[in-house]
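Late entry, written up from scratch paper. The run itself happened at the end of the previous shift, but nothing got recorded in the book at the time, so transcribing now.
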Amino acid sequence: MGKDKLRKFSEIGTFDNVYQLEAALPLKGNWAANHFKNNHPVVLELACGKGEYAVNMAKLFPEKNFIGVDYKGNRIWRGAKTAIEEEITNVAFLRIQIEKLLEYFAEGEIDEIWITFADPQPQDSREKKRLTFPGFLAKYKLLLRAGGKINLKTDNDGLYGYTCEKVQELGLVCHQKTDNLYQSELVNEVLSIKTHYERIYLKKDKSINYIQFSFE
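Output as recorded:
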């Protein structure tokens, strides 16, 4: 591990908006009350990377709480640092493996989920690692409140197509979808937020896919 990564890992250990592994377990079921000190809805950004979506949504919606989840601390560092520097108090970060979400959040604790430019895991052998694999969807169903929505934004046509298939196969409710977001009528203030990776993809003239769905 390089010196810069080591520095970032060390620094996030001092941030009061970052929780790592077992240290976050006591917050299960009480994120809003015990960390954010309010009763506002909680929104997750999974595989958040540098946390651009979580941070920018927090700016747009001060009446909601946002938590970016990722395992790579050196990436989380950027979002957490920005939130501290800009005094954005309604966003926090959790460094865990996403497979373990149910250990850190209670049933019905989450209002909405965003999956933004996650690793598409294109190999068939890695299907279970895709964040819209039925095994993950089952976890999300437990975590989300009634009517809570899942949003997937990706440049990867394979992951988008796979997700659309699973939504149909499992009888989920598709609220909106497009295989070319910026040429659609769906684009808005939230969907216009661009991550580091999205900017790279757009420079390569890749179309951005988006789907929003729920369990009821």
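The first strand starts at residue 18 and ends at 20.
(Scratch paper discarded after transcription.)
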